[in-house]
Write a structure and sequence with these properties.
Layout (H helix, E strand, L loop, with lengths): L10 H16 L2 E5 L6 E7 L3 E4 L1 H4 L5 E4 L4 E10 L4 E6 L22 E6 L7 E11 L11 E4 L11 E4 L4 E8 L5 E5 H12 L3 H4 L10
Antiparallel strand pairs: 1-2, 1-4, 2-3, 3-6, 4-5, 5-6, 7-8, 7-10, 8-9, 9-12, 10-11, 11-12
């Protein structure tokens, strides 16, 4: 038989790889509680306790963080940006290292790319929803958020907000933020998250624990 040069596609292999990526990412997924009913989501992006979520999840409050194990940790708000719908939170890890996800490159996403959104929709802890990228850019719909967004064909629900969006390789490419109609979910791209952290917390590990004064809400 002549080899065509095309590697056979295995749906079982893809299924196994995605399941492994989700299992690893769930360890860095947290619940963000601000005293209201229900909880939003967040993702640990550094083992020293640095967490990213949506600004609309924390609403300028210092929340409590619940790890996927159920352990509850007090937290403090480091930075908050309503325009980007992002917030940075710190928890005291007492010298331990938490499981973390590294921010990936959202610029590699293309229409048709497979992504997975993690969160706690309607209180279901650590749920995963998959869909394909519709596009990356400014949505045509009138939205309060004016920056670029990852637009995905999946249904984000209350509790997904602030959770991680992964690409097919398991990289953190976005932060779930809102819906824009039936079966259209939106996420803040990882590139925007990286700029937000650099502008507000700096890039050095020590600097990231000391927010700029103007980044701290009154």
């Amino acid at each position: 038989m002549k080899f065509s040069g095309v590697i056979p596609f295995s749906s079982q292999q893809l299924d196994a790889e995605l399941a492994a990526h989700v299992a690893a990412a769930r360890k860095a997924l947290v619940q963000v509680r601000t005293g209201r009913n229900g909880a939003g989501s967040g993702v640990i992006i550094h083992g020293d306790g640095l967490i990213v979520t949506n600004a609309h999840v924390v609403r300028r409050r210092s929340p409590a963080i619940v790890l996927i194990s159920g352990e509850r940790l007090p937290a403090r708000l480091l930075a908050y940006d309503e325009a980007k719908d992002l917030a940075a939170i710190s928890v005291d890890v007492n010298g331990q290292q938490l499981p973390a996800l590294t921010l990936g490159d959202s610029r590699r996403l293309r229409t048709g790319s497979l992504v997975v959104a993690l969160g706690h929709p309607w209180g279901v802890v650590g749920a995963a929803s998959a869909g394909m990228v519709i596009g990356v850019g400014r949505p045509l719909e009138p939205l309060p958020y004016r920056g670029e967004l990852i637009q995905v064909g999946l249904n984000l629900r209350p509790g997904h907000s602030g959770g991680p969006m992964l690409d097919a390789t398991g990289e953190l490419v976005g932060i779930n933020t809102m819906i824009a109609g039936p079966m259209v979910g939106l996420a803040v791209p990882a590139e925007t998250v990286t700029r937000f952290l650099k502008e507000n917390l700096g890039t050095d590990r020590k600097e990231r624990t000391r927010p700029k004064p103007q980044a701290v809400p009154a």
